[in-house]
Amino acid sequence: MAKFNIINKAEKVVDYVLTITEKSPKKLRCDLVPELRKLAFLIMNDIVRANFIVLNEKTKATDVDKRLEYQTDCQSTIRVLEATCEICNKHSYVTNHQLETLSKQTQELFDMVSKWITSDTQRCAVVRLGVPQ
After folding, report:
1. Which of 4, 119, 131, 132 is CA-nearest to residue 67?
2. CA distance linking residue 82 with residue 60, whole number of Å
3. Which long-range contacts (CB under 8 A, 24 or more apart) does 105-111 make?
4. N or C: which end of the chain has fewer CB within 10 A?
5. Closest CA relative to residue 112, chosen from 47, 65, 45
């Protein structure tokens, strides 16, 4: 069975964050490395939680709002991860190549979540109007 594409992309981001933090300097291992890893896993956490809320004609408005909240939290966390990595790059804890690779992956993920939100918004409008899909 094919996995949800956004989950696949989020897993790649997590894998890459784990890779670039694996051999980080000792002085970063207590503070920065756990934070980067936490952010990466939070992204995946929000995606899974949002996807767990099924959208259909029986979905409550509060559940739709909760799903959107998870999706937007995911987008915010992606931006925080990017900003944190940029700071790491300025201090040479993350190489330019690592930053570029991660930025590309996170931007693709951000775009996918944005399209997911747009799709959900359109689906909810159709479901709320009672128009068959």
Report:
1. 119
2. 34
3. 105/9, 105/12, 105/13, 105/16, 106/13, 106/78, 106/81, 106/82, 108/9, 109/6, 109/9, 109/10, 109/13, 109/43, 109/78, 110/75, 110/78, 110/79
4. N
5. 47
Q: Which residue intervals of 53-95 are DSSP H helices? A: 61-90
Alpha-carbon distance of 31 to 124, in angstroms, equals: 41
Tens digits of residue pLDDT in 15-67: 999 999 887 777 766 788 899 999 999 999 999 999 999 888 888 889 999 99
Q: Cα angle vertex 114, ends 130, 105, to 5°?
A: 150
| CA nearest neighbour of 109 among 39, 11, 9, 14 | 9
